[in-house]
Amino acid sequence: MDGATVVDRSEGLDGSAVPHVPHDPARGVAGRGLAVRDVVVHYPDPASGKGPGTTAVRGVSLDLAPGEVLALLGPSGCGKSSLLRAVAGLEPVAGGSIAWDGRDLAGVPVHRRGFGLMFQEGQLFPHRDVAGNVAFGLRMAGARRAAASGRVAELLDLVGLAGYGPRPVTTLSGGERQRVALARALAPEPQLLLLDEPLSALDRGLRDRLAGDLRAALVATGTTALFVTHDHDEAFTVADRVAVMDAGRLLQLAAPEDLWRAPASRRGAQFLGYQAFVPLPAAGEALAIGPTGLVLSDEPSVREGGPGGPRGPEEWSGTVVRSAFRRGRTEVTVDVDLGAGTRRVVALGEPAGAPGRGVPPVPGPDGAAQHPLAPAPGERVRVVLDRAGCAVIPADS
Ligand SMILES: Nc1ncnc2c1ncn2[C@@H]1O[C@H](COP(=O)(O)OP(=O)(O)OP(=O)(O)O)[C@@H](O)[C@H]1O
């Protein structure tokens, strides 16, 4: 999935689009929602059990407005779960503060924060049926049995499991279990829902679908949510704004569209899937090349052996490593020197007017589908920039 398509919208449970609402600070009343200020989380040294052995979160500040969905995105070990756990009250805060609706949560235990939690494994009660699991969430919130049954049906409908109430949870697929876990977490209408990689135990296709459904359920219920993931497609699908973390710090916090169009640093851009970086003539600027930022030259004559050399800083010669037909287009892996040594990048093939366009793909030598006339390994080709798939970033970031 490329960034340009995922940032626009996700689909609701009924297939309708659920637009992302850019965060508008004026939307929230001052002091409402979550305020995280300079938060530091330490873990003690595992050998001695004392001292700040690992600093998992190094002074993170962010705000979450009521009704907003914010994703904490970053590589494994960057401190996302530690920050989430600190907000939940499951980890002590070594520095800074966490407040909800202007009230400092220092010393407020987990069960008194009014926050809901949902983890990677939904942790359903195996001896209860689907309705029993969802009703548990309601009864914890003090709902009476009669009122609960109507609400359980509503919640199951919301997560796409209408009629599943009597099913033993042991008979459900992984995706269905996570839907039940979501219904149970939403049941008490938590003032803030904390989700830690809720989809990561599922396979790719299911994750993509469930991410859209998760957003639809959060939006439909107006739930304020903090969502941890290491998957940028998922973050972009689910969240209104995304906080990119690295090594315990916040690199950037922005709406998906803004994050994609203007990464604030090279590290953040790399994490989002920008594949290469080229210095720009303007001092202090570099061009980050995204997954769709390079295309093969569509003039057969400029393939190596034809007339003319590279025409400037936006066109380079390279050697084909392989071609693969994926998602309706040919992706050509090319070794190319963009100005700082040879790099392996992916360029989009099959441009308009290319020979063989319209001929169906066939299995290549490595089993991957490829176009019969796609460039073969070892062939010299030209790659050109497509600025629409690139972003300008600070050079030394
Ligand atoms: N209970 C713990 N004791 C000691 N160190 C810990 C503990 N939990 C996490 N850490 C360390 O804190 C750092 C941040 O971990 P954390 O789980 O917050 O990262 P993460 O971004 O959520 O990673 P992942 O995506 O792999 O879950 C890591 O270096 C990790 O090894």
From TrEMBL:
Enzyme Commission numbers on file: 7.6.2.9
GO cellular component terms attached to this protein's record: membrane
Domain ABC transporter: 34-272
Keywords assigned by UniProt, alphabetized: ATP-binding, Cell inner membrane, Cell membrane, Ion transport, Iron, Iron transport, Membrane, Nucleotide-binding, Translocase, Transport
InterPro entries, sorted: AAA+_ATPase (IPR003593), ABC_SmlMolc_Importer (IPR050093), ABC_transporter-like_ATP-bd (IPR003439), ABC_transporter-like_CS (IPR017871), ABC_transpr_FbpC (IPR015853), P-loop_NTPase (IPR027417)
Name the UniProt record assigns to this protein: ABC-type quaternary amine transporter
Pfam families: ABC_tran (PF00005)
Region named Disordered: 1-29, 350-369
PROSITE patterns attached to this UniProt entry: ABC_TRANSPORTER_1, ABC_TRANSPORTER_2
Keyword check for Translocase: yes
EC top class, as a word: translocase
